[in-house]
Amino acid sequence: MKQYLLAEFTGERVIPGLVEDDLWNEHIARYLFASTLAAGKRVLDVGCGAGYGTHALARTASYAMGFDISPEAIGYARLHYGQAAAFELGDATAFPADGRSFDLIAAFEVIEHLSEWAKLITEAARAVTESGLFMVSTPNKTYYAETRREQGPNEFHEHEFDYQEFLDALSEVFPHVRILAQNQTQAIAFSGAETAPRTEVAFGETSEPVSAAHFYLAVCSLSPIPPLSFVYVPKSGNMLRERENHIASLQSELQQARAEHRRLLDNYRDLEKDFNLRARWAEELDDRIVLLTSDRDLLIDQLHHEEAEVLNRTEWAGRLEADIQDLIGQRDRAVAAANELRVELNAQRAETASDRDSLLERLHREEEEVLNRTEWARRLESHIEDLIAQRDQAISDRDSLLERLHREEAEVRDRTEWAQALERHIDDLILQRDEAATTAEQLRRQLAMVQAQSEQRIRALLQERDHLRRSRWLRLGRRLGVGPRLPDTKS
Q1: Minimal CA–CA distance to 120: which of 220, 245, 36?
Q2: Which one, of 218, 224, 174, 220, lies nearest residue 30 by Cα?
Q3: pLDDT in tens, 167-186
Q4: C-alpha–C-alpha distance, residues 169 and 166, integer Å
Q5: Given this model, what pLDDT does residue 7 score?
Q6: CATH 3.40.50.150 fits 21-237, yes or no
């Protein structure tokens, strides 16, 4: 057999055993009310969901059928309640039923889930008998929005109603409509070990109009409807004791919340200390970056100065080389002139011997002059060699400076890349700091909200307990020696 599982309560449909008591009581109470009107009748449950309500109606009805648009829900209902009632797939805007075929039609918490909700009403009018009843419930739009202020709108609701809109929509189709208020209210119950076959209910003063109810339950018919009311007591017991136990539980939760608050506060302080340490480290990094930037600028200035000096020395070496070339040219011309003089002297000696003495004298003078010029040429050549050595040294110095310049340029590039990587790391640290501060602030707001809600809830319960203690029925019980004995001290 195929197993149908409704694993969890999502807010769309109630699953027995998977919802809190208050929500379960709100839903089952409607079906128990309807079952008092279903005795011996044919009953149709629209949007039956898990089928627990159809099963409750089947206990008194002659025939009960539930239908739902969800195959999983119908499978679950057939598996758990199929022996007591029939379950079919169907759409709430097109009932799987003949006209005038059911004496009682229930559509509890269905109409707000439909975009074409008006068709639900017209289908109910088609399928119900002339004297039958159509029972339809929906949450009060205004009250429901207030209770869901923090959660936001119900994602499964297509259309919600206020009192007047609900009444007008039903009255357009049914000539007789009674809207009843469904509220969880305070009551005093008298019960024994055995349940009486009939229980009397006395209603006190009504403090709120039907339009202010938590839920609306409308009873509609094509025929007149008598006044109706119903009270469901989920369980009998000492509500005052339960409230006091609940207050104690809330106080325990408040202590836990306060302990959690202290833990979160300690975490926040630790985060703040860590943030301050990181901030100081970031400031130190900023200072180091400033110093490194200053050193880099000084190195760049020094590099530019040395580049200018290299250029100046290169220009000086060029000029020096030109001077050397000029001196070499002068030396070559002087040697050529000396050679010419020797040739001329030899020619003159050959031409005339008579003039030898004068020529010899002249030759001595010219030889002396040649010697002088030769000495000058030697000194000039030595000077030229010195200049060449100075040029070579200047070229060597220039090459050394260029090599140093390249090394310093590489160092400047490395330091610049390191500074850029350091700046990116600092930006990441600042982003982490901002995220940590944002997280701490969110934790503080959440904790403050939880604490405020818990304290407000405790105050309300304490006021209610004090109100119960002042009850004249409790005082009468004390005088008669019956009822619970409560301490007179106020907390």
Answers
A1: 220
A2: 218
A3: 999 999 999 999 999 998 87
A4: 5
A5: 42
A6: yes
